[in-house]
Each structure stands twice: as C-alpha cells, then as structure tokens.
Amino acid sequence: MDVNMFNLFVAGRISFGPGVSGRIGELARSLGAKRAVLVTDESMERLGISDRISGIMEKEGVESCIFAGVEPEPSVETTDAVAMLAREHDCQLVVGLGGGSCMDVAKAVSVLITNEGSASLYQGLGLVKQPGVPKIMIPTTSGTGSEVTFTSVLIRKSDGFKGGINDDKLYPDYSLLDPELALTMPPKVTASTGMDALTHAIEAFTSKAASPMSDLFAREAIEKIGSALRVATWNGSNLEARSEMMLASLYGGIALANAGVGACHSLAYPLGSMFGVGHGVANALLVPYVCRYNALAAPERYYEVSCLLDYSPEGLPLREGALDCAEALHELVEDLALPSKLKALKVGIKPEHFDEMAIKALAVARPMANNPRPMDKEACVAIYREAME
C-alpha cells in the first residue's frame, strides 16, 4: 500500500435513515422519468414492499412495471429479459429493490437499455460503452453493499460462468438506505448477508490495494458488524442493530469499491456457479480458512481485525493475535448457526470437485491479485479440503 497516492470513489447521493425509502417518488420525478422498471424478487412482492414503492412513485406521476423474478444467484438470461422489458416500455429509470442480486440486475439493466446486446458482452472490466439511464437502489438486506459499487455479478446459464460487469457506469445515482426495510429479514438471511458485508470489509482492509481512506470505512464496518450482527440476527426487531448493520454494509461496500476484495471471493464463486450456494453463505463458510492462510502474510492487519471483532486483547504476540482472527470468525459463524464445513451444505460437493473448483477460482483473477498472500491451485485445493471436514 502506497500511503501517499490513492483515489476515493463514492457512488452518487446516499440517503440513510428510517423511512427514507418514502423519498423514491420525489427522486424519480426529479430525474425526469415518466416510466420506471422496478427490479425485485418474490419476497419483496410477497411482503407487499414492491407494490408500496411502486405506489409512491405513481403518486408522483411515474409509472412503473415490476419485475419480481430475480434469482438468489442472478443470471445473464434474467438480466437480458428485464432489459428487454424496460426497452419495450420505454423506461427512463431503473429502481433496484431488495438484496444484492436485485441491485446487481438493476445496475446491469440500466446500461443494457442504452447499450446493445446481452449482459454477457460486458462481463469484464470497463467494457460498457454508453452511460445507462438513471438508477436508484433501495437495499433491504445488509450485506452486499451493491448500492455503492460499480459491479454486477451474474451467472451465465449457458456455461455456468460467474463473473462481474465492472464499470464506473454502473455506479448508482441515488441510494436510499432505510433500516426499517430490513426488519422483515429472517435470521438466516440476516446472518448470511451480514457475513458477506464482514467479508467485504476484512478483504478490503487486507487488500494490496488498501488505502488510508478505504481503511476508514473497512475498520468501521468490521467493528459495527462485530457488535451488531448477533443482535440483528436473533433479535430482528431491534432497529438500532438493523441500522448499525445497514451502515456497516454501506461502509463495506465503499471499502470494497475502492480497495477490492481478496481470495475468499474467488474461492466462493465456484460454490455459487457449480452448486448454487448463496454468496453470503459461501463467504461465511470460507472466510475463516482464508484468513488463517493469509494471517502470517499481513499479521498486523489480521491482528487488528481480531481486535476490532473484540476477540483478541491487546498485548498478545503478533503471530497469535493474527491467527486469532480465524478463531474469531469461526466463533461468529457458529453463533449465527451458519454452516462452517462444506459437507454441511448438502449440495453434493466432493473432494473430486476440488481441482475444477480451484481452476474456476483462480480464473476470478482480480480478487486473487489483491490477496495479501499469493495463492496457486494447490493452495486453493488445500483450503477447500480443510473446509470440507
């Protein structure tokens, strides 16, 4: 890390607070939109939240068509279908409502409205040619930070490839973070999305591309999650804990947008693309093992993570404190009742899959390049093997 040179990128305008999602109508109108596509999932439709958000916009003269079919692991094919719907209805605005999957699809749709072809053409870095239509994100989980990042991660059903559209044109114009919308999250979703946010923050903090500015956000995110995630998971009506988690997710998103993430994300991708494991669950399961592997390559950083999680007291020997980071994460995963072993996922993962998983993980090259300790195929397989049993 060069402490003398860095950039800081933050998406659009961010509004935070209970009830702030009610501003969606005035924002949509201020952007000059007459029609919007609202990108969401079945749970938001079932809870009536998508209808409420649509109704607020319609009161301000902005019609909306609702697409409520986003998958937990969103696909190129679904994204292309939403973009076609948006073009057919001449939508001038995209609203993403839900977790990271919904927001990732919404961000991609905004640029597909103005750029020809399938989303698969833009999976990579800086491949989007024209700016998209305006986009507003309304997160209802506290995990991905997608409301402030320039990435849309999609799976191609045709070949199982999972990769991101990474382009500054995907940064949202507005983000409305309303912790009241998180009150309906069940414990398992709260836990897995919270661990996703924690993984973002830890990997940004230990990234080779970390800077003093990204560190500010990463530290705050780690500390907030360490104190609030258990409460938010097991006492979901606690608005203070929900607010802290939504702030932490935001901070983690800003940190990862500026410093990137590391090997845990690369290793998690094959679990999603090959076996359908949710991204937050995959990160939660793998991050303790990755931190143990990395700890001696950046001991001061991992020792500090352990302290921020209120696990290690100051004054421990550096090596012991750094390795304690993995133990802190194992304990947190256990407290959240999330799976800590690959065999516990019950999705058919076997040791004979590890070579293919490792090859796919190494193909997710940017996070691997950010990782504080180099990782080859043998190291990937070793981590999968350790996580299996």
What is the string of SSEs from the N terminus onward?
Answer: EHEHHEHEHEEEEEHHHHHHHHHH
Low-confidence stretches: none
Shape: globular
Number of helices: 15
Describe what this molecule looks like in 3D:
With 389 residues, the protein is an alpha/beta fold. The protein folds into two domains: 13-182, Rossmann fold; 187-388, Dehydroquinate synthase-like - alpha domain (Dehydroquinate synthase-like, alpha domain). Helix content is 51%, strand content 11%. The protein is built from 15 helices and nine strands. It has helices at residues 24-30, 42-46, 49-59, 76-88, 100-112, 187-205, 212-234, 239-259, 263-275, 279-294, 299-308, 318-335, 354-363, 365-370, 377-388; strands at 13-16, 35-39, 63-67, 93-98, 124-125, 135-139, 151-155, 162-166, 174-177. The strands form two sheets. A six-stranded parallel β-sheet has the order 1-9-6-4-2-3, sandwiched between helices. α7 (212-234) packs antiparallel against α8. The protein is globular, with a radius of gyration of 20 Å. It starts with 12 loop residues before the first strand and ends with a helix.
Please supply descriptive tags for the structure shown above:
globular, Rossmann fold, single chain, Dehydroquinate synthase-like, alpha domain, 15 helices, 51% helix, six-stranded parallel beta sheet, alpha/beta, three-stranded mixed beta sheet, 389 residues
